[in-house]
Design a protein that fits this description.
Layout: H1 3-6, H2 8-22, H3 27-51, H4 54-74
Length: about 80
């Protein structure tokens, strides 16, 4: 079994949780959502590398940059 292919499932779950937190009215929850989103970006990048899904890697790098901007704005 290819264990790296299974990495997409926790990446998806973390991403969904992050987006749910990003919709919160609480500043702390939104901040946590941005941090979880960065974790999700990292998981997707690792998965994309082993799946040779280079467009996914590029997208996740761009989204990570936006998430870092969000982290700075919520501080």
């Amino acid at each position: 079994m290819d264990y790296f292919s299974l990495l997409q499932w926790p990446a998806m779950v973390v991403n969904i949780l992050a987006v749910w937190l990003l919709t919160s009215r609480s500043k702390n929850k939104r901040h946590a959502g941005f941090l979880l989103s960065l974790l999700s970006n990292g998981l997707w990048i690792v998965w994309g590398w082993f799946a040779q899904a280079f467009a996914v890697i590029g997208l996740q790098i761009a989204l990570a940059a936006l998430n870092m901007h969000g982290v700075k704005k919520t501080d």
